[in-house]
Amino acid sequence: MNKTDLISVVAEKADLTKKDAEKAVSVVFDTIMEKVADGEEVRIVGFGAFERHERKERIGSNPQTKEKMTIPASKVPVFKAGKGFKNIVAEK
């Protein structure tokens, strides 16, 4: 399923126009991305939590040349599925 498919399902289930459903889905996604980028946790009970994790600088190697290199520190988004989400997936 891609974003367009999700918008179609939301429009159908919520009895919205596709235009209104697209706005709603986009606002939800944009808000989650903004808050996580700002370092906040977005927790949706029964679904899961979106967080920002900070990776420390580390030493790696170039797979082609085997040369050692420093991988810089970075910030990455992480999703942890909630209990309800896990239960639904386990049942199917």
What does this protein look like?
With 92 residues, the chain is α+β, with helices and mostly antiparallel strands. The chain is built from 3 helices and 5 strands. It has helices spanning 3-13, 18-37, 83-91; strands spanning 42-44, 48-55, 58-61, 68-71, 74-81. The strands form 2 sheets. The protein has a 3-stranded antiparallel β-sheet. A hairpin with a 6-residue loop joins strand 3 (58-61) and strand 4. The longest helix has 20 residues, at 18-37. The two termini are 17 Å apart. The mean pLDDT is 96.
CATH class category name of the largest domain? Few Secondary Structures
- CATH architecture label of the largest domain: Irregular
Largest sheet: 3 strands, antiparallel
Please name the fourth-level CATH homologous superfamily of the largest domain: IHF-like DNA-binding proteins
Element layout with pairings:
Elements: H1 3-13, H2 18-37, E1 42-44, E2 48-55, E3 58-61, E4 68-71, E5 74-81, H3 83-91
Antiparallel strand pairs: 1-2, 2-5, 3-4
List keywords for this structure.
92 residues, single chain, 3 helices, two-stranded antiparallel sheet, HU Protein, Chain A, 29% strand, alpha+beta, 3-stranded antiparallel β-sheet, 5 strands
